[in-house]
Structures are given as C-alpha cells and as structure tokens.
C-alpha cells in the first residue's frame, strides 16, 4: 500500500470496491416462483395454504421460536407484534432514538406513546440502564432494535422488563441471524418483527414476519392484522371467535414472498458467514488506523452485517466527518451517516407547532404532553455525530476487495496533514 496523494487533492483514486449483487435468488427459487404463477395460485390466507405454512414453519425453526406469522412488511410485523400484545391507547413504549422511523411509527400506530431512552455510545443500541430510568407507571413495553445487524443487550433488557412487568418486542429488521449470548435475536422478547424487503439480509421483494412464543399472542395479532381466514387454523381459541371480522389491517404476505422466503432461508447462513469473514479481514487491515473505531461486542455476541457501522474519531483525524467522508468518497468508498438525528428531535415530534398534514398520532403526542424537543439523549447525539455506515454486501471471499477498501482508508489516514490543510482553506474560502 503506497502513500499516494489523496484523490480529493488530485491524486489517483484507489477506486470503487464493488459489492456482491443483493438480493440474489437461486435457480430453484426462481423456478418455484414461476411454477407458482403458472399454477395461478396467488391467494394465501393462512397456514392451510402449503407455501404459507412451509414459510412460517421454516422461519420459526430457523429463528428458534414457536410461532411465526408472515406479513407484508417490517412495519407490519412490528405493528402486528404490538397488537398481539395488546399495546394500545396511552400505553408508553420505551423506544430507541437511534433507528429507522418504522421502529417508532409502529408504536404511534397503536395509539401508544413512545418514550425515548438513550443508547450505548459505541453501538447506538438501547442502553438497559437508561431504559430502566425511563420507566413510568404507564410503561407497558420495551422495543429494542438490533440496528445494522448488531445485537442489542437482550439479557439485560429482558431482565429490566421482567423486574418491572413489561413486555419486550424486538425489531430485527436489519439483523436476521445476528447472535446475542449464543442465540439468534428475535427469540428473546415476547414478540419480534423483521423486515424482508429487498435490501435486507433475508430478502424477498416486500415482506416481513412476526415472531412470538405464546400462541395467544399469535391469535390476537392475527385477529387485528390478518384476513379472517386465519381463524380456520387449528387451535383457534373459541374466546376470540365472537370478535372475528374483517375490521383488520391487511398485513398478509403474498404467496410469492412466502415461496421466496423459504428459499432464501436456505442460503442466508452461508451469506452471513461470508459477510462476517469479510468484516474480520477488513478490521485486521485497519488495525492501527486511528480515525475509525469499530464498536465492540461481548463474547457470545456476533453481529450479522446488514451494514457496517463504525465510529469516526475526530480527535485523531483533526478534520470534520464531512471532510473525511468526502476524502473517502473521492477514493471511491461511499459512507454515510444512516440516522440523521435523534428521532424525538424530528419535525413531526414537535406537536406544539406541527403544521403538516393531519395524522391522528400527532394528536396522541399532544395528549401525552411530552416535550420531545427537550428529550436528552446525549449518547445518541454523539453516535449520530460520529457514526459512519457502509453498505456491506461483501459476501464472497475475495480478499483483494478488503485490501482495496482498507487501502482507501489508509490513503486518507496517511494524508491527514494535507487533508487538514485542505479543510482549513475550504473553510476560509
Ligand atoms: C430497523 C428497521 N425497522 C423497521 C423497518 C421497516 O421495514 P419495512 O420497510 O419492511 O416496513 C426497517 C426498514 O428499513 C428497519 O430498518
């Protein structure tokens, strides 16, 4: 690796490092989808449909939980999970301020009130101590997100939940196959929601799934989110039958997605292992590079890399993150900060002066009286300011790619004095 001049300053770029295509579908998967279409079967309302049952049983077995319900999206999965646990009007749910909005909108769509705890500053994952400090008499649930495929500390979060009589709903949308304490995430909480849209680790076209251990939760979730056809599944409780109707959210998954998910499951372990090997190699190449710090995980935890999230160290680099990203980008490496700001500080949480289109949950927030703008989540603010994300569809073992990726970072590192000088002049202009 040479100390070439920075591409930003006119040097030759290290060059882009292509990722593997994602998602990919095996020939068997494509054949099954085609056969299914040829068979003219697109309606699948419940486990009585062979491909729905096959998908839900395969996902449940792979995840290590009793129950799975295939649904139309990750948001649908989370909303379904919360409704299965009867989270409703005025209930408080402790959320992370550092995520994709759907990790919180699912709470809003129950008529419930999100209360934001702070995160671990390295990983951006919910901090169990802050969660415990956020509990009030109205708290009903905790909603941890395994962001970027990093496993949240489910051992500590479940202990807090148990101590205070709360339920836990995991958002595993970015974390299929992520391991906490030797077990797959999604199996710790009372329920979990996963997205399977095309960009996710377990990708179909648009779909998701809800997991739970307790069949009661499954039935209650189905009552509100699925076609009444679900009530013809064996074991449907008589107590719920009087309430079965079509006053539901239409969150069922398509049969084609059920077929795709079953087939995608056959290769996800191999793909996740490849992503992990590439991260390990990349990390080795970056040893000693001071501008970037990798989040650390306890023994027994093993992220699944939907994205790679690292932390920029401005004290070392002596330039802003924006300048650093610009220099990397000129070398051919794209990075971006995934979460723009803490969620409670987003415009639509400012119910006091909200002037956008009418939506019921802004009224709900108003009724709560919580001043979200003043919610203090200092670790989240730091994580937002430092985090750098990279797409991580590096599955195949091609060591030259990790070398080249690292070379781009090292080129910036070796040229930090020149980059500082460039930044200083840019600021003066
Ligand atoms: C963490 C997280 N939760 C929930 C979702 C929602 O998933 P979907 O887009 O399938 O509704 C996403 C999607 O990106 C996500 O990243």
Give the SSE map.
Layout: H1 27-38, H2 50-63, E1 67-71, H3 74-84, E2 92-95, H4 102-108, E3 113-116, H5 128-133, E4 139-143, H6 154-164, E5 167-171, E6 179-180, E7 183-184, E8 191-195, E9 208-212, H7 215-225, H8 255-285, E10 292-293, E11 307-312, H9 314-317, H10 321-331, H11 360-368, H12 378-386, E12 387-391, H13 399-414, H14 416-428
Parallel strand pairs: 2-3, 2-4, 4-5, 5-8
Antiparallel strand pairs: 1-9, 6-7, 8-9, 10-11, 11-12
This protein binds pyridoxal-5'-phosphate (PLP).
Textual characterization of the structure:
This protein is of the alpha/beta class. It has a domain at 27-265: Aspartate Aminotransferase, domain 2. The chain is built from 14 helices and twelve strands. A seven-stranded mixed beta sheet has the order 1-9-8-5-4-2-3, with helices on both faces. α2 (50-63) packs parallel to α8, α3 packs across α4 (102-108) and α8 packs across α13 (399-414). The longest helix has 31 residues, at 255-285. The chain is globular and about 75 Å long. The two termini are 33 Å apart. The mean pLDDT is 97.
């Amino acid at each position: 690796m040479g100390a070439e001049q920075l591409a930003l300053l006119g040097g030759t770029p290290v060059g882009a490092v292509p990722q593997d295509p994602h998602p990919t579908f095996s020939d068997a998967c494509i054949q099954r989808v085609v056969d299914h279409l040829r068979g003219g079967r697109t309606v699948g309302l419940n486990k009585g449909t062979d491909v729905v049952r096959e998908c839900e049983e395969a996902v449940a077995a792979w995840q290590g939980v009793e129950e799975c319900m295939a649904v139309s999206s990750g948001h649908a999965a989370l909303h379904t999970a919360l409704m299965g646990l009867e989270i409703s009007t005025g209930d408080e749910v402790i959320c992370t301020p550092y995520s994709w909005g759907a990790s919180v909108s699912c709470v809003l769509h129950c008529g419930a009130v999100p209360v934001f705890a702070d995160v671990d500053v390295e990983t951006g994952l919910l901090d169990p101590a802050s969660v415990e400090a956020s509990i009030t008499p109205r708290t009903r649930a905790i909603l941890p997100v395994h962001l970027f495929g990093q496993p949240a500390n489910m051992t500590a979060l479940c202990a807090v939940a148990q101590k205070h009589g709360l339920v836990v709903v995991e958002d595993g949308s970015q974390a299929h196959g992520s391991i906490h304490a030797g077990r797959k995430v999604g199996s710790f909480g009372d329920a979990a929601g996963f997205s399977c849209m095309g960009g996710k680790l377990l990708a179909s076209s648009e779909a998701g799934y809800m997991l739970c251990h307790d069949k009661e939760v499954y039935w209650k979730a189905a009552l509100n989110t699925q076609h009444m056809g679900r009530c013809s599944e064996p074991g449907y409780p008589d107590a719920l039958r009087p309430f079965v109707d079509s006053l539901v959210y239409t969150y069922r998954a398509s049969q084609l997605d059920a077929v795709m998910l079953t087939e995608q499951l056959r290769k996800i372990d191999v793909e996740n292992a490849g992503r992990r090997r590439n991260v390990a190699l990349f990390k080795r190449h970056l040893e000693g590079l001071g501008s970037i710090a990798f989040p650390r995980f306890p023994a027994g935890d093993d992220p699944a890399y939907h994205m790679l999230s690292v932390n920029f160290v401005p004290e070392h680099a002596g330039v802003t993150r924006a300048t650093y990203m610009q220099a990397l980008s000129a070398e051919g490496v794209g990075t971006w900060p995934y979460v723009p700001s803490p969620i409670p500080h987003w415009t639509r949480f400012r119910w006091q002066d909200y002037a956008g289109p009418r939506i019921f949950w802004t009224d709900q927030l108003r009724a709560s009286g919580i001043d979200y703008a003043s919610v203090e989540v200092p670790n989240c603010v730091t994580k937002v300011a430092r985090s750098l994300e990279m797409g991580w569809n590096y599955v195949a073992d091609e060591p030259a790619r990790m070398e080249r990726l690292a070379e781009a970072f090292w080129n910036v590192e070796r040229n930090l004095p020149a980059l500082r000088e460039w930044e200083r002049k840019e600021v003066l202009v």
